[in-house]
Write a structure and sequence with these properties.
Layout (H helix, E strand, L loop, with lengths): L1 H21 L7 H5 L4 E3 L2 E3 L7 H4 L3 E2 L11 E3 L7 H20 L8 H12 L21 H20 L92 H18 L4 H5 L13 H4 L2 H14 L15 H17 L10 H4 L2 E5 L5 E5 L11 E3 L5 H4 L27 H9 L3
Parallel strand pairs: 3-6, 4-7
Antiparallel strand pairs: 1-2, 5-6
């Protein structure tokens, strides 16, 4: 009997060691592209594979960006604070860029259609893990959500720059998480909160309404399939949908402006601080070679993805709702620029917030076409610093959701000064923040 137990123990140890040895990151290769198949989004069959043509046989170049200290970082700005000449110039360039992108033939991987298709292929199980016949790939609902969308947005922005012949063009973000106003810091100019942040003044106006420049019919950035609520200029986006709790579209009905703002602040606080207080909870479940695709947000998503991210997709509706058509609504891009920004903010909040250190996350490898229609090979480890990608984000009123409770003094918060900007003086106390950080351990 003892010998049998010993043999079983040895067997278990060998299996465990073998599992460790076989652990490997999700890797997209030329073979992955060639073996692309029909995908699925719930009960919908999708067809969005890259054409099996000579473009897949072209050389693949590694992408490993490093910051050029001689160049000033481009600043992605909050759309709600663009005014006057700056707003007119940006609107003209944005619409021209998308008009040019839409005019590209579908055979060009930079075209508007193909931008949608590559997101569809990565997000509907159209790609199969190399060496498998049934392990399809999805970059949603796992720890790959943040890095893949950062990369996708980066190359999309680069394509617009190329088409516009303007390397300084930036995709500004929809600051949907901020529903409160704040005063600019005392050391900035009087107009800093209204015009730009050239002096790092930032933007402190509410940004929770759908950006008007995306709601003008007969323009290249308009999408008419959106829900009617997306065209109500006086109605803020609602972040409170929780599909993991069985919520439905009716969640968005019959709320006052004040109630929506209050609920949104609670969702943001929960997503980035209270519930999103660890690497695992914020990024989502581990996803590596040999692991089956996660099919529902509640089974693997991190806090930002499954709550506020799903809420915005659902609230806007239309083509932005399903994975296989979402990027065919241009609003997808400023929306996800803010999601990317929130990843950065999560780090800046402190509380020992750290990216995963697992080699299977750092070594996850994707293929995407760049602004020159060249296929690039990119590992997650190489896109973790937005400074290396050449951009940064304008400062906004993130303090509006850092704490849902009132505090009498901003000096007691212990947070970076950039978070001391809420109009109603609502800051977490040092005690609150200590508890938040302690729950991280």
């Amino acid at each position: 009997m003892h010998m049998v137990r010993y043999q079983v123990l040895i067997c278990c140890i060998l299996v465990f060691r073998l599992a460790i040895v076989q652990s490997a990151p999700i890797t997209i290769t030329r073979k992955t592209f060639r073996n692309c198949q029909r995908g699925s989004w719930y009960d919908v069959t999708t067809e969005c594979c890259p054409p099996n043509s000579t473009e897949i046989d072209e050389p693949i170049l590694d992408f490993n960006p490093k910051r050029d200290p001689s160049k000033t970082l481009r600043r992605r700005k909050a759309l709600q604070c663009l005014v006057g000449k700056e707003l007119k110039t940006y609107t003209r360039k944005l619409r021209r860029g998308y008009a040019l992108m839409r005019a590209l033939p579908d055979s060009d991987p930079r075209s508007f259609k193909r931008q949608n298709d590559i997101h569809c292929a990565y997000g509907t199980g159209a790609f199969i893990q190399d060496g498998s016949t049934d392990l399809d790939i999805d970059i949603h609902f796992t720890w790959l959500f943040f890095p893949w969308h950062r990369l996708f947005l980066y190359f999309h922005e680069r394509i617009l720059q190329k088409l516009l012949e303007d390397p300084e063009f930036s995709l500004h973000f929809w600051n949907f998480d901020n529903g409160l106003s704040a005063d600019a810091p005392a050391n900035t100019s009087a107009n800093a909160s209204v015009t730009s942040d050239d002096d790092h003044g930032g933007c402190y106006k509410p940004g929770h309404f759908v950006p008007p420049i995306y709601n003008q019919p007969a323009t290249s950035v308009f999408e008419g399939s959106r829900s009617p609520r997306a065209f109500d200029a006086a109605r803020p986006v609602d972040l409170s949908l929780d599909t993991t709790a069985g919520d439905s579209d009716s969640t968005f009905a019959n709320k006052t402006l004040e109630e929506t703002v209050r609920r949104n602040r609670q969702v943001m606080h929960r997503s980035l601080i209270r519930a999103g207080n660890s690497t695992r909870s914020f990024f989502g479940t581990e996803y590596r070679a040999g692991v089956a695709r996660v099919l529902h947000a509640g089974l693997g998503s991190g806090t930002v993805e499954k709550w506020l991210h799903v809420s915005v997709h659902s609230y806007i509706g239309g083509k932005l709702f399903p994975t296989h058509t979402a990027p065919s609504d241009p609003l997808f891009y400023p929306f996800h620029a803010n999601v990317d920004r929130l990843w950065q903010v999560w780090h800046e909040l402190g509380c020992d917030h750290r990216d995963p250190s697992d080699p299977d996350w750092l070594g996850a490898e994707f293929l995407l076409w760049d602004e020159n229609a060249v296929l690039r090979r990119v590992q997650v480890r190489n896109i973790l610093r937005i400074e290396d990608l050449g951009y940064t984000y304008e400062q906004v009123n993130d303090a509006s959701w850092i704490s849902p409770q009132n505090s009498t003094s901003s000096e007691s918060s212990g947070l970076s000064p950039k978070f001391h900007l809420i109009h109603s003086s609502e800051f977490p106390t040092q005690k609150d923040r200590t508890l938040q950080c302690a729950s991280n351990t």
